[in-house]
Amino acid sequence: MICGFLNVNKKKGMTSSRVVGKVKGILRANGISGVKVGHTGTLDPDGEGVLPVAVGRATRLFDILSEKTKVYYTEFVFGKTTDTLDASGVVTALSEVMPEKNDILAVIPALIGNIDQIPPAYSAKSVDGRRAYDLAREGKEFELKAHRVRIESIEYCGEREGGAHAFRITCGGGTYIRSIARDMAQALGTYGYMRYIRRERSGIFTIEDSCTVEELEGGIVDKIIPIEAVLSDFPRYDCPSREVARVLNGVKAELEGMPEGVFRLYCDGVLTGLAGNDNGTIEVKTRLI
């Protein structure tokens, strides 16, 4: 059974779900059907760049990979905002306050670190079983709770045409760049929105090594990245042969020599999944066989 990852360079105007549908269609055209396919982190329809797509058993790694560090190039416009906090929305507020470089540099430090961030109203967050963006489109009143995100750095990249300001942002999973535009503008005493976003990296996946959907149509199988390569930054642990059966049956055995945190688990030389070290006791988190 085919499994692994595709490093897709998503084009602006295409939803992440549409990319998954395209990949499924290309696989079927190559005689490969009945295989699970999914992306490991939504990229806004107006955004472009790296969208890792998992195929087969690799889809079991969604939760692990969605938390990986991501890098975005983005452009913010100040002096106005929209209902969606991006260029696709309707302008909802204006301000005459137009910050300059030094003003922006002064507020950036307060936006870095482990912070509580409120998602945009137009987001995929669930509210009583419904997507927030559906409620927003219907004009319904609702409140999204802040959630903890990790923002590692915000690099100021200069002013761009039309008065926008460019940034390169390194952050953890679950961070909304549109929310950073809103919060930065608020710190500057004005309004703001995100007019452009490109994801340049997601975990080990980089834009330099990505391929478009059109390039996948020219040959998809040779572009699949093995699971083992994607998990290479996790330490390796080889389970003692005498303990393999117990571990694979879910027994939390006490094993010696395990790395700290999450690691790749090998049984009889085969990558079996990801496991964790719980005070010397092994806990299998994700089975890959």
From TrEMBL:
Transmembrane segment boundaries: none
**What Enzyme Commission number(s) does the record list for this chain?**
5.4.99.25
Ranges where the tRNA pseudouridylate synthase B C-terminal domain occurs: 178-218
**Pseudouridine synthase II N-terminal domain: which residues?**
35-177
Q: What Pfam families would the database entry show?
A: TruB_C_2, TruB_N
Keyword tRNA processing in record: yes
> Keywords of this protein's UniProt record, alphabetized?
Isomerase, tRNA processing
Q: What reaction does this enzyme carry out catalytically? A: uridine(55) in tRNA = pseudouridine(55) in tRNA
Tell me which Gene Ontology terms the entry assigns under biological process.
mRNA pseudouridine synthesis; tRNA pseudouridine synthesis
Q: Name one GO molecular function term.
A: RNA binding
Class in the EC hierarchy, top level: isomerase
Q: Where is the active site?
A: 44
Q: Does the keyword Glycosyltransferase apply?
A: no
Q: The organism sits in which domain of life? A: Bacteria
Main role? Responsible for synthesis of pseudouridine from uracil-55 in the psi GC loop of transfer RNAs.
Per the similarity annotation, which family is this?
Answer: Belongs to the pseudouridine synthase TruB family. Type 1 subfamily.
What is the designated name of this protein? tRNA pseudouridine synthase B
| Provenance organism | Candidatus Stercoripulliclostridium pullicola
Ranked from the top, the taxonomy reads:
Bacteria, Bacillati, Bacillota, Clostridia, Eubacteriales
